[in-house]
Amino acid sequence: xxxxxxxxxxxQSDRVVQVEGLSKKxxxxxAVNGISFNLTKGEVFAFLGPNGAGKTTTVEIxxxxxxxxxxxxxxxxxxxxxxxxxxxxxxxxGVLPQDFNAIDRLTVRENxxxxxxxxxxxxxxxxxxxxxxxxxxxxxxxxxxxGGLKQRVGLAVSLVNDPAVVFxxxxxxxxxxxxxxxxxxxxxxxxxxxxxxxxxxxxxxEAEYLADIVSIIDHGQIIAxxxxxxxxxxxxxxxxxxxxxxxxxxxxQLPPGLxxxxxxxxxxxxxxxxxxxxxxxxxSLAQTPLHDKEIEVRRPTLDDxxxxxxxxxxxxxxx
Amino acid sequence: MRSRIYTIIRGHFKSWYRSKSNIFWTIxxxxxxxxxxxxxxxxxxxKFDLYVQNQDLSGNVPTVLSQGYVHALNxxxxxxxHMVAAEQSDPLxxxxxxxxxxxxxxxxxxxxxxxxxxVMSGKTATIQLFMDQSDQVSASLRGIVNSVTVSxxxxxxxxxxxxxxxxxxxxxxxxxxxxxxxxxVIGMTLLTTGVFGAVNTNGRYRELKxxxxxxxxxxxxxxxxxxxxxxxxxxxxISLVVILFFGYAIFGVTVTIDIYTVGLVVAAALLxxxxxxVLANFVKEAESADAAANAITFPMMFLxxxxxxxxxxxxxMKIIANFMPLTYVNDGLRDALIYAQPAQALxxxxxxxxxxxxxxxxxxxxxxxxxx
Lengths: 319, 372
Ligand SMILES: Nc1ncnc2c1ncn2[C@@H]1O[C@H](COP(=O)(O)OP(=O)(O)O)[C@@H](O)[C@H]1O
Ligand SMILES: [Mg+2]
Fold this sequence. Notes:
The complex is a heterodimer of chains A (319) and B (372). With 319 residues, chain A is α/β, with parallel strands linked by helices. In chain A, 33% of the residues lie in helices and 26% in strands. The longest helix of chain A is centred in the middle third of the chain and has 16 residues, at 177-192. With 372 residues, chain B is α/β, with parallel strands linked by helices. Helices cover 66% and strands 9% of the residues of chain B. Chain B has helices spanning 4-17, 20-42, 64-75, 91-102, 115-120, 138-157, 177-207, 210-215, 221-251, 259-282, 286-303, 315-321, 325-339, 342-366; strands spanning 48-54, 57-58, 61-62, 79-84, 108-111, 125-131, 163-169. A five-stranded mixed beta sheet of chain B has the order 4-1-5-6-7, sandwiched between helices. In chain B, strands 2-3 form a two-stranded antiparallel ribbon. In chain B, helix 7 packs antiparallel against helix 9 (221-251), helix 7 crosses helix 13 and helix 10 (259-282) runs antiparallel to helix 13 (325-339). Classes of the chains: A alpha/beta (319), B alpha/beta (372). The A-B interface holds A 63-67, 87, 90-91, 93, 95-106, 110, 113-115, 117-121, 141, 157, 161 and B 1-4, 7, 11, 14-15, 18-19, 208-210, 212-219, 370-371. Bound molecules: adenosine-5'-diphosphate and magnesium ion.
């Protein structure tokens, strides 16, 4: 395969996706507003944001399903806006659309073969079935599967042409926690194989768990990018010391001179922690009646990052 | 590498035969209709159907002798007489349609104008008896009519030779209702499987994001549409074969299969999915597209003469029927399969193919392959 990117941008041929100033307007509605990011080979990149943030619009521009109204996007060095390049992109990408369902009355295996037949070369269906752990459902019709299994069929289908990059648009939305874990397992396996994955999600924990790099998108704009650790360190705020089951009474038993404590959940005391303070606080706690309580230190999460950046929380529904 | 179009055809076909409701609507339901309608309209009586037109009126009243002659025919008890109004200028066509509608034999006896006067003046009056030579009952029926005529002539004029029955062979096949109905059921089945099939594969598959997924692969929109049309052709052929076989096995309906039949099936397999695609693109939600498909197919079925000849419709409906694509498929199939009228079949096939080209092209142009 000749790689036009290598010619254009010497030394940067491991850039799988390059996006610069990308915009998409639907009438007056600016769904994507001048975003820029890169996706490097072998990386799992998560696009994290609430519903309506512009995730699907961006992904579908990269999949050549929608035309950008501004900016530039290259996938594997090919320009998504050029017709001739689009054909090259389609051969090389794997796609799991948001809310995808395979064909109801075809079996798991038949579905993989069906979508595989759209490409010149397809991976062995049985190997893919193994990868997504569906061996005993191989000959079951798609419509008989549970939501989690259906999504795993979708994953297998998205890999059928051995793509150079896989786009997964909200692969776990609507699944129960166990099914989500299973899907995560499959994505981890892809990561282990060195696949390049572009993932969108509105689940903070999903991005934190799976992604090498996270871009947080809100109202069509990227508001932060980095590894989960970098984002948490930069935008997550302070760590919190939790004293379990101490209650209102516990607050009065705290040693003096601590930052302001608050009561959470069923009587947990939460104390914001500044770096380097942990040991001295623990030592002073040992002198109080709270010394036999369970104590833990909680790191901020991407939830806190999003809250700190936007002033809003992303609810379960992603709103 | 298997061809993409073949894969799509096979996918649709598997989805079809694995669904009980699909099998029901494309195969069992048409057969059920045939049995039902065949039973309702097929129970002929043991008497011979005979249409009679008495043209010998004086004022507005039949003359005495002509009236007496009809009465004598009726007295035999051998006939179910069906009177045709004297002012009916084309009684043969009228009888053809009416007989078909009521599943009666196509036989017409015409008492000529001047019958009364001719007999009174002692001259010979000629009564015409139109019937098909191949009509199984033709010999016995003619025998009864002859003997009634002779004895009537003898009674009124004492001269048995004064009345002559002139048999006139008519070329039309003696088409029973079931012969008429079978092509209609085929047309109806092609209509419903085509329209609903396209609504399903282009509406529902869109909702399920299957089309979106396919659009990210090297598959092109044209290949997708060709796959759908190919599948519809297979389905149309199956419907045709099953219904014809059933009609032959149960009701002895024999048909002529010719190039026009093939042309009409091809046209139907493009035309009705084309209409379905146009629908699916105007009504985006699969559910409402289904309702819209019902709203279009049902009236079309009735107006296009699926169950009854269009001649029996009120005039305004006849005009509307001319705009129903199914009309040309139904008519063409009847011309080709039953009436063996190649010239008319050709006209209908050409119109159906023209409509097919129009709708499939329109449906394809309207269809959004990529951006929603
Ligand atoms: N086809 C479309 N036509 C008009 N507006 C759209 C279309 N698709 C998305 N939008 C709008 O663009 C914004 C971003 O949508 P989307 O990309 O689907 O967000 P996300 O995937 O992050 O939930 C939303 O305001 C949405 O209403
Ligand atoms: Mg989305």
